[in-house]
Write a structure and sequence with these properties.
Helix content is about 30%, strand content about 25%. It is α/β, with parallel strands linked by helices and about 230 residues long. The protein has one domain: 3-Layer(aba) Sandwich (Rossmann fold), CATH 3.40.50.300. α3 runs parallel beside α5. The two termini are about 35 Å apart. Keywords: Amino-acid transport, ATP-binding, Nucleotide-binding, Transport. This is Urea transport system ATP-binding protein. One of its GO terms (molecular function) is ATP hydrolysis activity.
């Protein structure tokens, strides 16, 4: 469904990603692992088109998106929950959700019930400003905003960063339910090994901007963790 081939990207004169290739299939949760600063967020931004690829390609359902603008990638069916959430602080919760509809492939005027059903606390906060929410509530809002467009591929960059354990559990349940539906491909960046092991099907490890290991949950053993992930 989503394929990255020999991708090279960076900032200014700096090359961050080197020859990165990965695939995410429908109904699969693929986890991208690595220590801080190895290029995980850079890869997510490159897939979304927020950062231009210097070499290589990004394809989705066989269509080359490498030179497409971020808005066109979103409308093609790729949803993105960025690190830091990036909700609109001055807009209400409901207005934030409506903005998610801009990426929908079908013109709709109301937030789909299935996006809200996964985060039932949000309707009770519709009139509150996004900036007044707690970090965990903002993360739920950012997640629901991405789901409002009914994406077929969902990019999640550090969804559990800086939020309370109860909401981490809620996000785990949502990812599991998306996986169980079997219709959406998920690419997840997350530092917590316990979390990714609880939801992931396949794993890639980045080091210095390159994929240095890939494999299933069964092969993600202590040696791999010690070599590439332990700080």
């Amino acid at each position: 469904m989503l394929a990255v081939q020999q991708l090279e990207a960076g900032y200014g004169e700096s090359v961050i990603l080197r020859d990165v290739s990965l695939k995410v299939k429908r109904g699969q949760v693929v986890c991208l692992l690595g220590r801080n600063g190895v290029g995980k967020t850079t890869l997510m931004k490159s897939i979304m088109g927020l950062l231009k690829a210097r070499e290589g390609s990004v394809t989705y359902n066989g269509k080359d998106l490498t030179k497409k603008a971020p808005g066109l990638r979103a409308k093609s069916g790729i949803g993105y929950v960025p690190q830091g959430r990036e909700i609109f602080a001055q807009l209400s919760v409901y207005e934030n959700l409506l903005l998610g509809l801009e990426a929908s492939r079908v013109k709709v005027s109301t937030v789909p019930e299935e996006a809200i059903a996964k985060f039932p606390v949000l309707p009770t906060m519709y009139e509150r400003r996004g900036g007044d929410l707690s970090g965990g509530q903002q993360q739920q809002l950012a997640f629901a905003r991405a789901l409002a467009a009914r994406p077929e591929v969902l990019l999640l960059d550090e969804p559990c960063e800086g939020i309370q354990p109860s909401i981490v559990d809620d996000i785990r349940d949502v990812i599991r339910s998306i996986k169980a539906d079997g219709q959406t491909a998920v690419l997840l960046v997350e530092q917590s090994l316990d979390f990714v092991k609880s939801v992931g099907d396949y794993f890639y490890v980045l080091e210095k901007g390159a994929v240095v290991w890939e494999g299933s949950l069964e092969s993600l053993d202590d040696e791999v963790i010690r070599k590439y992930l332990t700080v």
